[in-house]
Amino acid sequence: MTPLLETRGVWQRFGGLIANSDVSISVGRGEIVGLIGPNGAGKSTLFNLIAGVLPPTQGSIIFDGEDVTALPAAERCQRGIGRTFQVVKSFETMTVIDNVIVGALVRTTVMRDARRKAHEVLEFCGLAPRANVLASDLVPSEKRRLEVARALATEPKLLLLDEVLTGLTPVEAKTGVELVRKVRDTGVTVLMVEHVMEIVMPLVDRAIVLDLGKVLVEGKPADVVRDPKVITAYLGDRHAVGA
Amino acid sequence: MDTAFAERRRRDLIVACVLAAIAATVPLFVKDVYVQNIMVLTLMWGALSQSWNILSGYCGQISLGHALYFGLGAYTTALLFTKFGVLPWFGMLGGGVISALIAMALGYPCFRLRGHYFVIATIVIAEIGLLLFHNWDWAGAAMGIEIPARGDSWLKFQFPRSKLPYFYFALALACVAWFVTWWLEDSKWGYWWRAVKDNPEAAESLGVDVFNSKMGAAAVSAFLVAIGGSFYAQFVYFIDPESVMGFQFSLLMALPAVLGGIGTLWGPMLGAVILIPLTELTRSYVGGSGRGVDLIVYGGLIIAISLARPQGLIGLFSFKGLAGLFAPKRKEAVR
Questions:
Q1: B222-240, pLDDT tens digit by residue?
Q2: In a 3-state reduction of DSSP, which class is residue A5?
């Protein structure tokens, strides 16, 4: 079966800076894939290229068997790519449920259906008790979950999670991990950028490590963390010697 | 499901119907022409501000150039009637359509601008419109156009002898503007607009067509404002560029909404009910030469509101709002 998402030789240059060089990755249906790497490795850039925030300088992005490289973000959402933002971008003057309804309106124009869908998603994400609260009144961990809920309401095939587990307390992170698993169990493929290794590694089926804009290593999480190249990238040469 | 929400919307609708019914009976008791005149103006500015609120309040694209559409509505009606004998009713519709089309044509480049740059563009474009009409001889240039009065007639929509028909038309216009807002509030467009206002980038990621939602809001808003402009031309019988396209008209459309609560369903009408009678009365007490005093009152009110109640007066219409007014001031977080 063809993979759900493929990037083929993707480059992104910002002036003289090369954020992604020749990145080719693929994400299979039903997988949870972790995209990791030290700061400045080009993870967020790659994410934005997949979500359609900016077009790649070179290369193509294939989603669900179709070339979506030229499509803007809104249309990619219609095709089934949902995303969250690293810095949360809630609709602050709207209630939680209204935030989610905006997402649900991609699939229907009937308000009653959109509202029902939004309720289901909030229930799924554990935000139902906060449905009628203004988004600006949520605490940070709830805002993160609202990001996920909003994206889920668009009924994505692929969900891009940009550091949703970063900066949470251990308990919150644990509920977050459970949520991601639950999302995958409903048939949604997940590609997540994450910093905190000990949280992501048990969660993902496969990890892709980016460093200096290139794919460094990819494979099973257990193998990846032992890979000398990865240890070097994160900690420097001295620590890799013993591996 | 979500009965609280449906109930609030039903309650809004009922309250609006009751208020409209009460307003409709007022002229039966108030025979004073001066007061009736103020009532007509209040309803008209309420309707205009409600229309302005669709683009600037809901969709967040602050326009200070809506006088352009007001003027276009007025001029289209007046020109079609005086030059070609087209009835004002068709002129009204024509003015609305022309304004909506022009709003979209202008939106095409301008909606790529954000924040202050967009506001400045709207001001400049309206000023250009004003200058064009100042120099357009066929349209009366600076001399303006006088609409010949030929006796009371619904067909020609002119009533030299009575304010009442104008009152009922202005009331209908206010009701239409309110109802359109009410209806759009719970539609895909309404949700898209608010999402675009709050965070365009997030909206885009959720499949919202940001550009076209702005275009839609601009078209609806301009259409309704132009209808108001047409009405105004019929109401005053004489228009010139300054009296329908001057910058103060753009401000007068924004102020009631800002005062009452920008981006809210009831804000513009509430603001107009307070603001318009107040300024009309100030103007008449200070006397004919007091041109500008009403604007000082506006300015003072806006400063007071933005200090005490930045979200508008409508927030007072809830227990929380009232309690908040008397609660100790909380330092606003840095934006």
A1: 999 999 999 999 898 888 8
A2: strand
Question: Given an 8 Å threshold on Cβ–Cβ distance, is B191 in contact with A106?
Answer: no
Please give, rounded to a whole number of angstroms, the shortest distance from the CA of A83 to a CA of chain B: 7
H helices of A84-227, in order, are: 96-104, 111-125, 140-153, 170-185, 197-203, 221-226
List pLDDT tens digits, range A1-36: 688 999 999 999 988 888 998 999 999 999 999 998
Q: State which residue of chain A sits closest to B58, comparing Cα positions.
A: A93
Which residues from B are below 8 Å from A94, CB to CB? 194-195, 198
pTM of model > 0.95: no
Residue B268 corresponds to which tokens in the numbers above? 């513009």
d(CA A54, CA A10): 12
Residue B250 to residue B258: CA distance in whole angstroms: 13
Provide the strand spans (E) within chain B.
145-146, 238-239
Q: Which residue of A has its CA nearest to B190?
A: A102
What would the pLDDT profile of B123-177 be if each residue is shown by its tens digit? 999 999 999 998 888 888 778 888 877 777 777 777 777 788 899 999 999 999 9
Q: From the list B192, B199, B206, which residue is nearest A154 (CB)?
A: B206
B210 vs A: CB within 8 A: yes
Which of B1, B2, B199 has its CB closest to that of A91? Answer: B199
Query: Structural domain boundaries of chain B?
Result: 3-326
Tell me what pLDDT residue B267 has: 92
Residues 6+ apart with CB under 8 A from A160: A47, A50, A51, A81, A82, A83, A84, A151, A191, A192, A193
B5 min Cα distance to partner chain A (Å): 9
Per-residue pLDDT band at B29 (split at 50, 70, 90): confident
Q: Do A111 and B188 touch (CB under 8 A)?
A: yes
CA-nearest residue to A105 within chain B is B188
For A62-71, A132-141, B270-279, B313-322, which range has the lowest pLDDT when averaged over its residues?
B313-322
Residue A62 and residue A66: Cα distance in Å, rounded?
Answer: 5
CB–CB contact A150 B206 (8 Å): yes
- The continuous run of DSSP H or E covering B255 comes out as helix B247-260
Rounded to an integer, the average pLDDT of B87-108 is: 93
Name the residue among A209, A205, A222, A214 with its Cα closest to residue A28: A205
Q: Two tokens at A71?
A: 């499509």
For chains A and B, count residue pairs whose Cβ atoms are closer than 8 Å.
86
CA distance A87 to A140: 10
CATH number of B3-326: 1.10.3470
- For residue A220, the surrounding DSSP H or E stretch is none
Q: How far is the C-alpha of A183 from the C-alpha of A32, rounded, in Å?
A: 10
Contact A102 B208 (CB under 8 A): yes
> Is the ipTM above a cut-off of 0.95?
no
State whether residue B4 sits within 8 Å of chain A by CB: yes
Cα torsion A179, A180, A186, A187 to 10°: value is: 180
Q: Which of B59, B205, B213 should we substitute to test contact with A (largest number of A Cβ atoms within 10 Å)?
A: B205
Q: How far is B207 from chain A (nearest CA, A)?
A: 4
What pairs with residue A160 in β-bridges?
A83, A191
Q: What is the dihedral of CA A197, A198, A199, A201, to 10 degrees?
A: 70
